[in-house]
Write a structure and sequence with these properties.
single chain, 199 residues, alpha/beta
């Protein structure tokens, strides 16, 4: 029996990068996985198909986030495929707008850290854990430009004592652990999964 048999998971931004790795990992642990996408249905379907090809169960959930009515649209789309949710991975993220990219990204993550601690207290009486994972710079499409030169790659790798750039699978294992019953006594925490880049 796999650790997440009988569980249903939803991974926002699950079509590519870290989200894709998490979706595949949780499916490999036995979860039925909803792969969310905002605008790119093709990448979400590719991820879902990768899961199905490995014998897993996956479906796609389309809903643009960050717009009025986004939560209702997300859950209406999800409810067409599943009767309940056991695991939610809030992975979706974007860069851009008029605010410098790294600043906007950092601000959104700071808000999530506060949200994590507050929500953990609210839902603990229901046996629900809430945690955040801080992956650091990871080899994904979002970081392709920063990693496109040997100098850029070396600078990012040097941030970690392991002297390498994180891969999406490095992060998916941490999330799979937090989603498992083995992490049932961890809640309201921010886990540094940056390969020690903050040491």
């Amino acid at each position: 029996m796999s650790t997440l048999d009988g569980k249903t998971a939803l991974i926002t931004g699950g079509g590519r990068g870290i989200g894709r790795a998490i979706a595949i990992r949780l499916a490999g642990e036995g979860a039925r996985v909803g792969v969310h996408y905002g605008t790119n249905a093709d990448t979400a379907e590719q991820t879902a198909q990768l899961i199905r090809d490995k014998g897993g169960d996956a479906f796609t959930v389309g809903a643009q986030l960050g717009v009025p009515g986004d939560a209702d649209a997300l859950w209406q789309a999800f409810d067409r495929h599943a009767d309940g949710l056991d695991i939610l991975v809030n992975n979706a993220g974007i860069l851009g707008g008029r605010i410098p990219e790294l600043m906007a990204y950092a601000m959104s993550k700071a808000a999530l850290d506060s949200f994590t601690a507050t929500l953990a207290k609210e839902v603990a009486p229901r046996g629900i854990t809430v945690n955040a994972v801080g992956p650091g710079t990871t080899e994904t499409d979002m970081n392709a430009e920063r990693l496109s030169t040997p100098e850029g790659r070396a600078a990012i790798a040097a941030q970690s004592p392991f002297n390498r750039v994180a891969q999406a699978d490095d992060i998916s294992g941490v999330v799979a652990f937090l989603a498992s019953d083995d992490a049932r006594w961890i809640t309201g925490q921010w886990l540094d999964a940056s390969g020690g880049s903050m040491l």
